[in-house]
């Protein structure tokens, strides 16, 4: 669409036709191109039109709403498959929970981005490969199975990213846009969950007043369908009404960055004071790694918001210091898992953790180096964004290795 936009920038009728054909994609592509078109009368007019923040909610077209409704119902039915077909829940949900939502989000962006038949075939093939692989995995309790189930969710998330990005044009912009979309999705889904929780409490309370106990029916049906539909509805709302969370996400990024920085600094000091040793305490090491992944996610989300909203040196310093502290945490975690491997040997869990930690460490070092150049040399902060964007496919490759290759290396039992 980028080339079409540039080619028809002086043709109002063609621009209008392109906009009406795919409003979401048109808005995204135009906003990426606008910095280079600023000053052109037509471009300025379209910028004001596309970025005008209306107080009203845009519910999209009838086709959009129909897609959301049908997708939500099918997602709810997939979540109910263990009840419908008497499938063991302990077998079904760990393996298939990702298939309840991700394929529908992927289909939504594939539809809106008008992906080619070849790309749709890749998406369908990869998704089917995941379905068949995980459901034909031997029904045994093993670390390899748990790792495959966890990383299968990340694999499906990667397929969603492929569908979101769509084309090779402005690839790095779209990849960071995908990270921003994930942050917005979390915010909107959280708001929907809060509203749903309030509605549930009111509904159960009202029915209890007239002597009807509907808790079991409500949770097994309404709540299940609502939980499956929430991410789909949230995606639809964030894409058709970016103004809903457009100002909330940057505030969250600015607020939580300094708070997490202080928390992490205090936590590292507390570790030294408490005498906890990640080299010999397995449970502590697991929590340590979970903290690392959470902080890294906050850094990347904050960078995605920062490069689009501000050039505040204070916020950049917070991100830089947070990156440095996270590198220290990663270094301790990485050395601890290497120590455990040298002492007790290699296992699927240790291999997965050491590989993930190594990739995260390299990524954080690259991001910190770019942030330092921005602060010291005044380099364009978009370089930080590109660093993150170019590194994302490496995580995808690692996800594929852990999901599909680890069982072959370590065995299915």
Automatic annotation (TrEMBL):
Keywords: Membrane, Transmembrane, Transmembrane helix. The chain crosses the membrane at residues 65-85, 91-111, 120-138, 144-165, 185-212, 218-239, 251-273, 285-304, 316-339, 351-369, 390-410. This is DUF4153 domain-containing protein. It comes from Pedobacter insulae.
